[in-house]
Amino acid sequence: MNSNKSTEEIPREQWSSFLDAFSRQHEDWLATLEVFDKTIGAQAEAEELPFEGISFDNGKSGSIMIMLGDLPDHITHTIEQPRHLWLQLTPQGADAALEIQAADESNTLLRFRSPMLPELVDGIV
Predict the structure, then answer these.
(1) Residue 98 lies in a domain
(2) Which of 8, 14, 30, 62 has the lowest tally of Cβ within 10 angstroms?
(3) Domain count, the chain
(4) For 103-123, what is each residue's pLDDT tens digit?
């Protein structure tokens, strides 16, 4: 982790409400989605597509789904059996990225091109 960012783990029982609020707050922000896996290394799934949302399905094993882009460039990335969810913040306290670790120890990183404090975004079109 970068030393000039702070990271906060989100407790599992808060995932659903946290991700709903996160989706509303960051809708249409340009986002990049990367997956880090021991067998394939780092793979970019999407680069600078509009963030549509992220949700937690709290079924038997649970899964997190990340939706990016508009048609025809729409991507839905599913993380099966997520174990950890971290929010990375800039030194100013803006949301910089979400990191999700799955049971297979793969990590998915959702980061925004221009992290901003929520109060600076309100009213911007």
Answers:
(1) yes
(2) 8
(3) 1
(4) 999 999 999 886 555 555 444
